[in-house]
Amino acid sequence: MTFGITTDYIKLDSFLKGVNCVGSGGEAKIIIAEGQVRVNGETETRRGRKLYPGDRVALDGHEFTVERER
Fold it and tell me: 33-58, pLDDT tens digit by residue?
């Protein structure tokens, strides 16, 4: 699945809210801190991690790719 952004980057916690993987920023903070999220194949524990077009995010068996929206 892909998710389009119109800015240069999106922060990981905002991305997870945008793809409806979490209901709130607080929930995103918890699952990220627990190491449940992978970015480009590596576990990511920083909720402010900047995601750029081409980055891949995996959570609970779902994988999303960040794309630039035109």
Answer: 999 999 999 999 999 999 999 999 99
The pTM score is 0.92
Fold of 2-68: 3.10.290
Token pair, residue 63, equals 């994988």
How is the chain split into domains, by residue range?
Answer: 2-68
At residue 33, the 3 state secondary structure works out as helix
2-21 as b/e: b if 16+ CB within 10 A: ebebeeeebbbbbbbbebeb
